[in-house]
Structures are given as C-alpha cells and as structure tokens.
Specification:
heterodimer, A: alpha+beta, six-stranded mixed β-sheet, 41% helix, B: Nuclear Transport Factor 2, Chain: A, 5 helices
Chain lengths: 135, 182
C-alpha cells in the first residue's frame, strides 16, 4: 500500500513537471511571436499575444502601454530585417531571451524579460544597446 | 486428467501474468523514481546557480571581497559588455576589482532572478556614492541612484563561466555628469 502511495506521488510529481515544461515552452513561443511581429510589423500578432493591460519598461522605466506598443509597431522604422534568438531562460511564467535584431535604424543587442499570464504578455522589460553606434 | 492439466496451465498462466505485471510495475517504479531524482537534482542545481549568480554582486561589488573570486569565477570566464567588448580570462576580469573599490556605499537590489539549466538572469538596480574617481571620471560627490540593469550568467562546473550585462549607460553617464541631463 505504502509503495502504491509513493508511486502515485512520484507519477503525479512527474506529470506536474511535464505540464509545467509544456507551459514554459508555450510561454517561450508567445515571446518569440511578439518579437518576430515587431520585425514584420504584424499588428494582428500583438492582439493575439499581448494583454490589453500590458506594461512595458525600458531600463526599468515605464516605456509603453498597449496603445503605445501598437503605435510603435506602426512606425515604419520599427520594422526590421531579422531577429536572432541566442539564449532562452524560462522559469514558470517568466521568459528571458538574449537577442540580436537587425532594424533599419541599426543592429541592436539586448535582453528581454517578459511575464506571461493566461497566454498573454502582461509585462515586458527590455534592456538593449544599438551596436551600430559603437563602430 | 486433461481437466487438471488445463487448471494447472491456467494457474501457471495466471502466475505468469501476475509476475509480468509485478515486473513491469517494478520497472516503471524504478524508472519513475529515477526520473524524480533527476528532476530533484535539476531543481537543486538551479537553486545553487541562482545563489552563485547573486554572489557576483553581493561578494564582488557590495562586500568588495575579491578573495572569493577564484571560488566563483571560472578560469576562462568571458564578460561581455553592452558595447560589444569582451573581457576574457580570470586575470582580466579580476581587474574589475579596482573599479568595484570605487563604488562607495554600494547598494544593489535584485528584483527578479530567473534560472533554467545553466543560465541565470538577474534584474537589478544599483546606487552608490560617487565620492571616488570612477573609470577616469572625477568624483561628483553625488549619490548615483536608480541605475537599472540586467545580467545573464552562464554557469559551468559550479562557477560563473560567461556573463552579459546591459544597463542604462545614458542615465549613468548623465548622473556622473559626463553628458548633460535631458
């Protein structure tokens, strides 16, 4: 009986871990979709993956709300050529990505920390630098 | 006799089925426990990595205790600065000690720590008294505060092997009086 209880506990823990991992993968995809949407200027993706009450921060200071994000995506110079995702760190509902993006305004490198709730981005913390200025 | 044989065969078959069931359950049992142990080890390592990442700020910049540098930094550590420049190797990274000493009364708040596998991210802000010259910038006597940044660290064999940092350089330079405030 004791063995059955232990085995049930082990199986439940493993099942919970597997579910958490699949959830984390989904959260990673949500962040990836928004970053690709910015490169492509795809406004439809924003509605799909961003919460209406999203809070965006740049270097810890308030940066954008939902409308501000839409306006940013509408800017011609906002679109780019491509974005490379170099490293992902995902824990629970927090997704960190190290990236390099090739925009019309230059090559940017940085890190983003996004928080996801109910499959939508609710917080976006960006830290980056325009590498073109360094040359 | 044939009836007895059939009964015996049925019993044997039943015993075989029970034995097979027990063997399979036992195998799954062992496999599941091994997986759980693996999961537990992963979680422990993640927590260890988080504590190690915090030591970068706490030991090297708050306590300015570079005696522990060898304990926490890998010999072939690489530090990537926002400008794209890199610092390679323990000896080169240890030169940061001189800069760390000039952060007077430093305070670093860790807002978030996220870890997975060998990577740890720390989102932070920093304050210190600019009462000593810093990176060739003469002391302003001011408290530099609200400087926000983010670090990504890669751990290898229980040491920090690679480090990326982004912070608000513009804000930093304005507070240091290098460029005019907006």
């Amino acid at each position: 009986m004791k063995r059955v209880i232990i085995l049930s506990f082990v199986c439940l823990t493993l099942a919970a871990a597997a579910m958490a991992q699949s959830h984390q993968e989904k959260n990673k995809t949500i962040v990836e979709r928004l970053m690709l949407a910015q490169i492509n200027g795809d406004l439809n993706e924003v509605a799909d993956v961003v919460d209406k009450n999203v809070k965006g921060y740049l270097f810890g200071e308030p940066w954008f709300d939902y409308d501000g994000l839409i306006n940013m995506f509408k800017e011609k110079d906002g679109t780019g050529e491509k974005v490379d995702f170099e490293e992902w760190v995902v824990e629970s509902n927090k997704v960190v990505v190290k990236w390099t993006a090739y925009f019309k305004t230059g090559v940017f490198k940085g890190l983003v920390l996004a928080k996801i709730e109910d499959d939508k981005i609710v917080e976006w913390n960006a830290y980056f630098k325009n590498q073109s200025n360094e040359k | 006799m044939p009836i007895l044989k059939t009964k015996a065969m049925k019993n044997n078959a039943l015993i075989l089925v029970v034995l097979a069931f027990l063997m399979i359950t036992s195998c799954q049992d062992k496999k599941a426990i091994a997986e759980l142990e693996e999961l537990k080890a992963e979680l422990q390592l993640t927590e260890q990595n988080k504590r190690l990442a915090e030591r970068w700020h706490n030991d090297l910049f708050i306590a300015c205790n570079w005696k522990v540098a060898e304990e926490i930094l890998a010999p072939d550590i690489i530090v990537h600065f926002p400008s794209g420049e890199d610092m390679k190797g323990f000896d080169q990274v240890k030169t940061l000690e001189a800069m760390a000493k000039n952060y007077i009364n430093p305070e670093i708040n860790h807002y978030e720590i996220v870890a997975e596998g060998g990577y740890v991210m720390i989102r932070w802000d920093m304050s210190f008294d600019h009462t000593q010259d810093l990176m060739g910038i003469p002391a302003t006597g001011k408290r530099i505060s609200n400087l926000h940044g983010i670090d990504l660290l890669r751990m290898e064999n229980g040491k920090i092997a690679e480090f990326w940092q982004y912070y608000n350089e513009m804000e930093f330079m304005q507070q240091l009086g290098v460029i005019p405030a907006q």
